[in-house]
Specification:
The structure is a single chain. By secondary structure, the chain is of the alpha+beta class. The protein contains 17 helices and 20 strands. The strands form six sheets. A five-stranded antiparallel beta sheet has the order 5-6-7-11-12. The longest helix has 28 residues.
Length: 524
């Protein structure tokens, strides 16, 4: 655009010395600003202490977030005062903002809010700690992460990753240095040249974007425009954390073709003033806007999770929802409760060491024992309630157990021994037995002549197949920051030996007492 104006000015009669000097100054400014134009990608995401700690806890929940998603979930601040300031304006990450809102919810009881405030303190200790140190309060922080995680909707993808969504609304403030978009128009002042003003007036305003720059407390703020006749859709590129523009195009194989949207931008300081002079701004066209995933659904056109190919558009970002990307999702971990959590994490010495440890944790997802070991190596000593097992189910094979087993086997053999002995004493052939029970039934069924036969039947009943009862007792507690869901199983298999001994001895004692009492009754 600048070169076109220079050519037009040259045709009109050339440049004065003053104009040449002005052009030189503008050229220098544009060169300085060149790395910050709309083609620049967001800064490389690095591992932070807060991301390391929260990431390990989420891995224990079965979710491995990408670094960019961890940043979006936590945010960034240096002091507790900054945390409070960002929280009050809704600028914290998804998890941090959720926890802030809970701790400041006047509708909750003082006791409940005190629990959230303790978790807030643990979060701040994690975020503001340095590599090589020790982070405390991990137990309550793990409870907070687990509670927040249970509020998310998790959609597993074909690749084993997933998309986490949650209700959200964009912050109401009008200035930020985050990768942020809003439909609140920023009052960008344009240059005195007529081209920008004409385009802005003739096109439809779409949204305003904010991007961080190489200057501290400075953002690149742009208003975006398009002709009303163009129908725009977007595709969110998670790797670049940017929305790529497409327009409907009947001539394209997929029905959509890439589109470059017009934008008009300035560089503004945190106090709202422009970076250079009041009249300095610029404009261009570009095919994407840098934006954090949580703000994608606030764009005023459909944005999809899959790039338009062969006309297939699916999985649209829903308005009113924010999204996080998970590299790996292990659904078997979601419903497991934390059995024990060590209250401290000793941090690795450097971010590079942390990256190696988190890589090992990510690789271990899908295998609970391997994951437990990898988390322990990374500093998070944690255990879960294993699915389908009962605590204390260990077996012992020492000498005492063998002795007790022999005694139990002997007691279990008593019914057979008694029955066999009685059968031997009254042994008759099959026909004779049938005759006795058939022809003499009028006698054998009558008291007291039925007693020997009842005794034999009682002994036989001791041989009946037994099944120790198992009584499941579900305990589910879901209240604010505390969540507990576990089914305890009272399994009488553990007492089967003692119960069998008691059952046999009581039955035999009952039989002996019955015979003795009957004999006394007959004698009178």
């Amino acid at each position: 655009m600048l070169s076109m104006r220079m050519m037009e000015r040259r045709k009109a009669g050339g440049y004065t010395a003053c104009e040449r000097t002005l052009c030189g100054i503008l050229a220098a400014l544009l060169i300085l600003a060149a790395p910050l134009d709309a083609y620049a990608v967001s800064a490389t995401v690095v591992q932070t202490v807060g991301g390391y700690v929260i990431g390990l806890i989420l891995d224990a929940c079965g979710i491995d977030l990408s670094l960019s998603s961890l940043t979006a979930a936590i945010g960034s601040w240096d002091t507790f005062e900054e945390y409070e300031e960002q929280g009050s304006s809704g600028e914290l990450g998804a998890f941090s903002q959720w926890l802030y809102d809970k701790a400041h919810d006047e509708g909750l009881s003082d006791q409940v809010r005190a629990g959230y405030e303790e978790q807030v303190q643990a979060l701040n200790r994690a975020v503001t700690s340095a590599w090589g140190g020790v982070v405390t309060g991990i137990k309550c922080l793990a409870d907070a992460v687990k509670s927040w995680f249970l509020t998310l909707e998790v959609e597993v993808t074909d690749t084993g990753g997933g998309v986490l969504s949650y209700p959200s609304s964009a912050p109401s403030h009008s200035w930020t240095t985050d990768n942020y978009v809003t439909t609140v128009k920023y009052p960008v002042q344009y240059l005195t040249y007529g081209y920008t003003a004409d385009v802005v007036k003739s096109q439809e305003y779409m949204f305003t974007s904010y991007e961080p720059t190489q200057w501290a407390d400075t953002a690149k703020i742009a208003n975006w425009y398009k002709p009303a006749s163009v129908e725009v859709v977007g595709y969110f590129d998670r790797e670049a954390q940017a929305v790529r523009f497409y327009k409907k195009d009947a001539s394209a194989a997929s029905g959509y073709s890439p589109y470059s949207m017009f934008y008009h931008f300035v560089y503004a300081k945190s106090d709202g003033t422009l970076r250079y002079s009041v009249g300095l701004s610029d404009y261009s066209t570009v095919g994407r806007v840098v934006c954090e995933e949580r703000y994608v659904s606030s764009l005023p056109f459909p944005v999809y999770m899959a790039e338009p190919v062969d006309g297939a558009l699916a999985d649209v970002y829903e308005p009113g929802k924010a999204y996080l990307t998970a590299d790996t999702v292990d659904t078997s971990m979601k419903d497991l409760a934390f059995k024990s959590v060590q209250d401290t994490i000793t941090l690795p010495a450097t971010a590079e060491e942390a990256a190696v440890l988190t890589g090992a944790v990510s690789d271990a997802l899908g295998d609970q024992e391997a994951l437990k070991s990898a988390l322990g190596q990374a500093g998070l000593v944690i255990d879960w309630y294993p699915a389908g097992t009962v605590e204390g189910d260990d077996t012992k094979d020492d000498a005492d157990s063998q002795t007790l087993k022999s005694i139990l086997d002997g007691i279990l053999a008593l019914p057979d021994a008694i029955k066999d002995k009685v059968s031997d004493l009254t042994q008759v052939d099959e026909e004779e037995t049938r005759r006795r029970f058939t022809l003499s039934s009028s006698v054998a069924d009558k008291f007291p002549f039925c007693i020997p036969f009842d005794f034999i039947h009682l002994i036989e009943k001791l041989e009946a197949e037994r099944e120790p009862p198992k009584i499941p007792i579900p305990i589910k507690f879901d209240y604010e920051f505390f969540h507990y869901d576990h089914t305890f199983v009272v399994d009488f298999e553990e007492w089967d030996g003692a119960v069998t001994v008691l059952r046999v001895m009581l039955d035999l004692l009952f039989t002996v007492c019955l015979i003795s009492a009957t004999r006394g009754l007959i004698r009178g």
